[in-house]
Amino acid sequence: MHDLSFFRNNLDAVAARLATRGMALDVAQFRELDARRRAALTETETLRAQRNSESQEIAKLKKAGQDTADQQAKVRAIGDRIASLEESVKTVDEEFQNLMKTIPNTPHESVPEGKGSEDNVEVRRFGTPPSLDFPPKAHWDLGPELGILDFERAAKITGARFAVYWGIGARLERALINFMLDVHTREHGYKEVLPPFLINSASLYGTGQLPKFAADLFKCENFDFWLAPTAEVPVTNLFRDETLDADKLPISLCAYTPCFRSEAGSYGKDVRGIIRQHQFQKVELVKFTRPEQSYDDLEKLTRDAEDILQRLGLAYRTVVLCTGDMGFSSAKTYDIEVWLPGQNDFREISSCSNFEAFQARRAAIRCRTGKKSEPLHTLNGSGLAVGRTWVAIVENYQQKDGSVVIPGALRPYLQGERITPSGELV
Which fold has domain 117-419? Predict the structure, then answer.
């Protein structure tokens, strides 16, 4: 949600910046609604003051024994007008708020302008993609051949875009979750939290998924419960409707959750494998920070996510998203893209975003310094998407004989060095 005063006073500049992300703000509609709303509120306040004055005059006349029938009729007429205006204000305010809910965050000044992913800007790289002396296999072939990944049985028990992990495949997923949580909590300064996986509508509104992106979510019938699309939602809403002590910021949290997404509008895209599933696991990083330090914290959060890939020895690049490729609530986003030999391309494995005060206003999360309070800034990023990290390991560490080497950082968790062609750990 935007700061209404700033939005109103800088409307043309804000509209021009929103246009760079494909949002055509109807400036005339905004001004017309805003003018009607403010005019009705002003008239209401004027009439209330007039009614109070007339009521005081009636009291004086009654005390003097005079007839007050005309004055009382006048007060009743004022009351009727106030009631009519309040109803009008309610209608206009609802229309106004519905408009504001659909307006995305304004891109930070450092975000490059562009229309789509082709205009994103690479800021750094780590590592070199492996040079394999054989044609690399994609994980959707290699996983089933090793007997550690099963799409057919998943489709039987649920449907398309689900997977069953067998044996070392399941253990590798679990090892990655524990490894990520251990690094972030023991070395990066995050506090682990395990939130509910079912969340209510207020939580999804707070982080910006509702009302605009309801089609991307799974809703529980007969309940105001939704399946969490990402741990960002429940973890950010831990402090909804609260005011935090600014001296105790930043608060850095990490959480493992399964994530559920309908992938509306993405049919036909990434249908093979586990890159784009309806259910997947993620370790999420969330920060609550002071406004003046939030962009320094975004850099740190992004580096924390990159560190996981560095420890796993996986080549990646980090790009800053252009205005036309950003998420609805974000003011600035870095995508970390890992190299996948089986697809001969870099693929997103983490998005790290600063939402500034956009989510905090929607969720009513503030920070207080002395007597002053203001919306704080929220940030989050995948640290990492577990399934995509699983894919990156299987594809990058595959060998000519069909085996897969386990990265050194994961060997203490798995008690093994290699997945054999028969799917055993040795």
Answer: BirA Bifunctional Protein; domain 2 (3.30.930)
